[in-house]
Amino acid sequence: MKRWAVFLDRDGVINEEVNYLSSSESLKLLPGAAQAIRQLNGRRIPVIVVSNQAGIARGRFSEEQVQKIHDRLSALLSGEGAHIDRYYYCPHHPTEGIGPYRMDCECRKPKPGLLLKAGSEMRLDLEQSYLVGDNVTDVEAGIRAGVRSILVLTGYGESLWRSWPALFQPHHVAHDLDEAAMRELAYGILAGQEN
Ligand SMILES: [Mg+2]
Ligand SMILES: [Zn+2]
After folding, report:
1. CA of 92 to the centre of ligand 2 (A)
2. Which of 53, 56, 109, 183 is least crowded, fewest Cβ atoms below 10 Å from its Cβ?
3. Ligand 2 center–CA 154 separation, angstroms
4. Torsion on CA atoms 176, 44, 187, 129, rounded to nearest 10
């Protein structure tokens, strides 16, 4: 049987949003984020990060630096007993940047490519899965991949929610990742979803 998973956008959801995070020293966990991920880990629900890293295409940072940031993020979470099961990211940009990274790819959110790739590689039941994000592009990618989307009001979420486009309604709006995770777990339990 396929498992369901929780997809997380990274910046503004797990860690503080800073425009084009390029150094692992600037990485700060948002309050409650580690606890939320630990709860999901405890229920053996795969936690998968899906993020746009167009800073690579733009030459602002390298894939190695992104790897360092993910290592640092994992270390911070590990200090609080939590872990990310897999990281997926899009290094591309459709119109800007360098070499092979400049392309109109299928993985840059709001396209659903990262979620679909994770879904097939990890054999996930996408219909029963969730995406938590702080941006319109996250919610749209979730809708296009057929997962349920939760908007959090951390990061860009709070200001975007005031003038949200009607076309991409999230299934839920939560104050932060901790509240979103509680809701996912409660819903999963009510729906009898086992992993
Ligand atoms: Mg974000
Ligand atoms: Zn891409």
Report:
1. 4
2. 183
3. 25
4. 80
Rounded CA-CA distance 193/12 in Å is 28
The reply to whether 9 belongs to the active site is yes
Decide: residue 73, CB within 10 A, 0-12 exposed, 13-18 middle, 19+ buried. buried
Query: Which string of DSSP letters, residue by residue, matches 4-19?
Result: P-EEE-SBTTTB---T
Walk along the chain (195 residues) and give the pLDDT tens digit of each residue.
789 999 999 999 999 998 777 788 889 999 999 999 999 999 999 999 999 999 999 999 999 999 999 999 999 999 999 999 999 999 999 999 878 999 999 999 999 999 999 999 999 999 999 999 999 999 999 999 999 999 999 999 999 999 999 999 999 999 999 999 988 777 776 666 777
